[in-house]
Amino acid sequence: MLAPSRCLRESLRCKGEMSALLLLRKFNPKSASNRTEQFFSSLICRLSIRESLPRGSRYFPHTNSITSIPIGVSWVWPLFSILSKSIGTFQLVSTQASPDEEEVTDEAFNQILSAIENDPISCREICSIYIDKLCKVGNLSTATRLLQSLRCKHIFLSPSAYNLLLAAAGEGNDIDLLSQTFKDLLTSRQSLSSTSYLNLAKAFLKENDCVLLLKFVREISELTFPRSAIVVNRIIYAFAKCMQIDKALLIFDHMKSLKCKPDLITYNTVLEILGRAGRVDEMLHEFASMKEANMVPDIISYNTLINSLRKVGRLDLCLVFFREMGESGLEPDLRTYTALIESFGRLGNIEESLRLFSEMKQRRIRPSIYIYRSLINNLKKMGKLDLAMTFSEEMNSCLSDLVGPKDFKRKYR
């Protein structure tokens, strides 16, 4: 059991007990560890005794008053429910105007940290609860102090707690907190999800200071070297996902001056960004620059080009890159054939579509339901109903073997 220390007992006096109460508001004993449950149970017991005394009375705790009370969910949760009602509309003391109250909160804040610093497991759970509360009421200054205190003690929060801070910092346009939170998350060596990168990108929606953005990217690159390219690639992708294409391209250009240079994934990401935006001239320029930098394009590079060009009706260039693929020794895959078969079919060149479909099957590439439907629809438009019926029957006879939607989903890189 986490024994109540002297500083913890002091933190429950006067207004300091309200700071402890705000931790209790989010506590769920069903999901907490034994140590955390015992820690909160002590707090609840002391607070419940004090709350039951008449106003103006003094409470003198005995050092052994906790030990005789059984600790358990059945005892903790009903009492916690009563306490939650008693604090009602209570807001964080540090958000109120009184300087006296601010000072008391600072003291209680430090005492709580002192009480749990020797128990990192409970500390992470308790501080995550505290961070959640601070973010909800918009008290980012205290969240910043808590983050600094934990960093000094080499204690890192869970990824979900950092994501809360990233989102709150973005909403509050606090770039300093955003930057430090993201750095702490990287330093913690925990796996970063796409949510972390998206929260980072969203925070820069209101920020137009490109110098500040590039300074941040440089610091992240230096912090994470030699794996910087992976992190910066994901930052570029996240910015594009949040429709900040120009900022994503700015980071890409800046990356060329960093120690970590753009790699194949970087170029493929940029090709996709430009292709989706319909900026095919810029896309072709970057593809040429990619080869000038001695970067060898892969199947993803060519598929991105072909898919983007067919959307703007440049089937002539699609065929150029299709031939270039073969000359470089790359085998076209399902995505390649899908783009070409659909494009030729829409232009009325159904014979070329059928030839490519036959070639694809000879290469033992599994067809998709999309290709069959495209061929059937285009055959009907051309008045070849019998052939359309033949393909429809063939499709229905092998539905279980066809490639479906889930096979087309690209994993987060």
TrEMBL record:
Q: Which UniProt keywords apply?
A: Repeat
Keyword tRNA processing carried by entry: no
The record ties this protein, via InterPro entries, to: PPR_rpt, TPR-like_helical_dom_sf
Q: Which Gene3D superfamilies match?
A: Tetratricopeptide repeat domain (1.25.40.10)
What top-level branch of life does the organism fall under? Eukaryota
Q: Where are the PPR repeats?
A: 228-262, 263-297, 298-332, 333-367
One Pfam entry name: PPR_3
PROSITE patterns in the cross-refs: PPR
Q: What is this protein called?
A: Pentatricopeptide repeat-containing protein
- Originating species: Liquidambar formosana (Formosan gum)
